[in-house]
C-alpha cells in the first residue's frame, strides 16, 4: 500500500516502546492496537543488541501454503540485510481463519493477532508474521498488504488472477516478489520511517521505489504488474534500498516511529 494510505489507516495506533511481552492468550485483550506502523520494527531487525534470532510465522489457509521458493527467498533476503546471529527461520502453520469475505486492513490485523504464536518482541526473538488467506483484499488490484510493524498478508487468489496466459510472470514468481515486497515495507522501505538521502522513491507512488529492478517497485504489489513486466519480476532489494538499510543499521540515517531502539 502507499505510505499515505497506510498513515491514514493506522492513525491513532499507539506506539509501545521496548518489548511487548505477554503470552499468546493475553495478546488480544491486552494489546488490541499497540502494534505500530510498517517500519516500526526496522531497527529491531537490523540490530542484534537484543533480538539475536528471528522467526517468520507463516499462517496459511488450507490449500494456500506458500511456495517453497517464496519461503527460501524471504529468509535468504532477510539474512542478507538483518543482523541475526542466531539465524532466521520460518514456522509454517495451516490455519482456519475466522474471517469471510473481502479482507480489510482491520480484518488482517485482527486475524494476525488471533493466530500469532507469540508477540513480535519475544525475549531475544523477533517475530514477523505473514498471512496467506483465501479471498481477496477489499481494494481491487492489491496483491499484498502490510498493516502494522510485524504483520503482512499476501492474497494468492489475486496473484493467480494476475498471472497472464503466457505465465510470464508466473504465479510462483509473482508470489515470491509480492511477499518480499510486503516484508520490505516492514523494513521501512521506501522512506516509511526515514528520509533517504538517495532519490529513489517514486513520487507518484509514495513508499515505493522508482527503480523497476527493485522488489520495492510500486507495480510489484499491483495486479497491473503484467502490463509492466513481461518476464522475471525483481526479487531483491536494489543498491539504494540496501544503502538505506545499512545507514539505518549504523545510525547514520535516523529511523522514526520505532517500537524498539538499540
List the helices and strands and how they pair.
Elements: H1 3-9, H2 24-30, H3 42-46, E1 53-60, H4 68-81, E2 88-94, H5 105-115, E3 121-122, E4 125-132, E5 144-146, E6 151-154, H6 156-162, H7 171-186, H8 225-228, H9 239-250
Parallel strand pairs: 1-2, 1-4, 4-6
Antiparallel strand pairs: 3-4, 5-6
Feature tags:
262 residues; 9 helices; Collagenase (Catalytic Domain); disordered N terminus; alpha/beta; 12% strand; 6-stranded mixed sheet
Overview of this protein structure:
By secondary structure, the chain is an alpha/beta fold. The protein has a single domain (3-250), classed as Collagenase (Catalytic Domain). 32% of the residues lie in helices and 12% in strands. The chain has nine helices and six strands. It has helices spanning 3-9, 24-30, 42-46, 68-81, 105-115, 156-162, 171-186, 225-228, 239-250, and strands spanning 53-60, 88-94, 121-122, 125-132, 144-146, 151-154. Strands 1, 2, 3, 4, 5 and 6 form a six-stranded mixed sheet that branches. A hairpin with a 2-residue loop joins β3 and β4. α4 packs parallel to α7. The longest helix is centred in the last third of the chain and has 16 residues, at 171-186. Residues 1-33 have low confidence and may be disordered.
Amino acid at each position: 500500500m502507499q505510505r499515505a494510505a497506510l498513515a491514514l489507516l493506522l492513525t491513532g495506533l499507539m506506539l509501545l516502546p521496548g518489548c511487548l511481552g505477554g503470552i499468546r492468550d493475553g495478546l488480544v485483550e491486552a494489546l488490541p492496537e499497540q502494534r505500530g506502523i510498517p517500519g516500526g520494527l526496522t531497527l529491531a531487525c537490523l540490530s542484534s543488541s537484543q533480538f539475536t534470532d528471528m522467526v517468520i510465522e507463516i499462517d496459511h489457509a488450507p490449500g494456500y501454503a506458500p511456495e517453497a521458493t517464496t519461503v527460501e527467498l524471504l529468509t535468504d533476503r532477510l539474512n542478507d540485510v538483518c543482523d541475526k546471529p542466531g539465524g532466521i527461520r520460518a514456522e509454517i502453520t495451516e490455519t482456519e481463519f475466522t474471517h469471510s469475505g473481502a479482507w480489510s486492513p482491520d480484518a488482517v490485523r485482527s486475524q494476525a493477532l488471533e493466530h500469532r504464536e507469540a508477540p513480535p518482541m519475544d525475549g531475544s526473538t523477533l517475530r514477523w508474521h505473514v498471512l496467506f488467506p483465501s479471498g481477496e483484499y477489499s481494494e481491487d488490484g492489491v496483491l499484498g498488504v502490510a498493516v502494522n510493524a510485524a504483520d503482512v498478508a499476501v492474497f494468492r487468489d489475486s496473484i493467480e488472477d494476475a498471472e497472464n496466459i503466457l505465465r510470464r510472470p508466473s504465479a510462483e514468481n509473482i508470489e515470491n516478489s509480492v511477499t518480499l515486497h510486503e516484508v520490505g515495507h516492514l523494513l521501512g522501505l521506501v522512506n516509511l520511517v526515514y528520509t533517504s538521502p538517495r532519490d529513489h522513491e517514486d513520487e507518484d507512488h509514495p513508499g515505493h521505489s522508482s527503480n523497476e529492478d527493485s522488489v520495492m517497485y510500486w507495480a510489484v504489489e499491483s495486479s497491473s504488474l503484467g502490463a509492466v513486466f513481461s518476464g522475471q519480476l525483481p526479487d531483491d532489494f536494489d543498491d539504494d534500498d540496501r544503502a538505506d538499510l545499512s545507514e539505518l543499521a549504523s545510525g547514520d540515517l535516523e529511523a522514526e516511529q520505532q517500537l524498539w531502539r538499540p
